[in-house]
Amino acid sequence: xxxxxxxxxxxxxxxxxxxxxxxxxxxxxxxxxxxxxxxxxxxxxxxxxxxxxxxxxxxxxxxxxxxxxxxxxxxxxxxxxxxxxxxxxxxxxxxxxxxxxxxxxxxxxxxxxxxxxxxxxxxxxxxxxxxxxxxxxxxxxxxxxxxxxxxxxxxxxxx
Length: 159
Hints:
By secondary structure, this protein is mainly α. The chain contains 6 helices and no strands. Helix 1 packs antiparallel against helix 3, helix 3 packs antiparallel against helix 4 and helix 4 packs antiparallel against helix 5. It is extended.
């Protein structure tokens, strides 16, 4: 041993807070679900009026929230268990969210198919992001090239 302190690498895994991620993403997905429910209510022909937002298409809100929370929790839990950040975490999260979407149809084959499709889509998206990802040094260099530096004031010598 050389006696030098070990420095953490930049690629070192940092555990993800699974419950906090699930609550945050679940809430955000619920807001998106509320918007979708409002659009469904506005475009549908029914006699329930504005109350149809919750009574008629309100299940959409819960489904979106549950899918978002399931995705975030599963992705974080799998990443923490494996201690890696890669596309397999997104595949597991997408599968969990897709399975919930399929269960809404009350069909196990649809749930399994949705698991496969959404899992594959999220895995592909995550894998493509890893390929296209840049190191911190490359990002900083690109930022410095893009933004102009502040010119230094010129001081003239007194004559």
